[in-house]
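User: Quick sanity check before I run a bigger batch. Here is a single chain. Can you write out its predicted 3D structure?
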Amino acid sequence: MDGFFNKIGELFSTPEYINSLLHGFLLTLQIAYFAILMGLLLGTVIALIQTAKKSKLMILPKFICNLYVTIIRGTPMALQLFIMFFVIFAVRGFPQIIIAIIAFGLNSGAYVSEVIRGGILSVDKGQTEAGLALGLSRTTIFFRIVTPQAIKNIIPALGNEMTTVIKETAIVSMVGMYDLNMAAKDIGSGQNMASYIVPMVVAALFYLATIYLITFAVKQVEKSLRKSDLRVEK
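Assistant: Done. Predicted structure follows.
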């Protein structure tokens, strides 16, 4: 155990190791941040299309969205990343971080769309009918009545999706990107098992701290949105 803590002390006292971890951690946050934004925007658009009123004009958009969600959710993230890197964007000099953001953003968008769609459908249709009976337009009903209630329902699931994206970014090391996971591997490479475990544990703590902060923030937002709910939390 003393050797383990000595290795931790050695790691944090070596500027080169610290710079490697921070560089990798920054890349991880950049990919996750922009992928989450892309996923939220794409998922919202897809969910709105999927829940739109049936019409001939919406048949093709609905089909495309359903096909996209089915393919993305039915295939591994690693496979999607490989296809993006070595097939679709197999162009020398194309920024790797952009490819990674697109790959994770497209993946997240499919899951976010289902979360938002489920949140919208969870709102009782009777409220929409009541709004129409009062003379409100469908747009007003959607944004003033349905959306606020749907947001309360989807916040926890969106928080889970955000944390999932952050953890999934660890696989970018499989395509040669120098993220937090790759930095830990690089620091521990060529050494004994104890020396290899230490940077991995430190990297895990970076992930854990980030996930905890996001989870805490999501819970605070959820708590704030539910202040008006007439229920007693034990």
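The mean pLDDT is 86.

User: Great, the batch can go ahead then.
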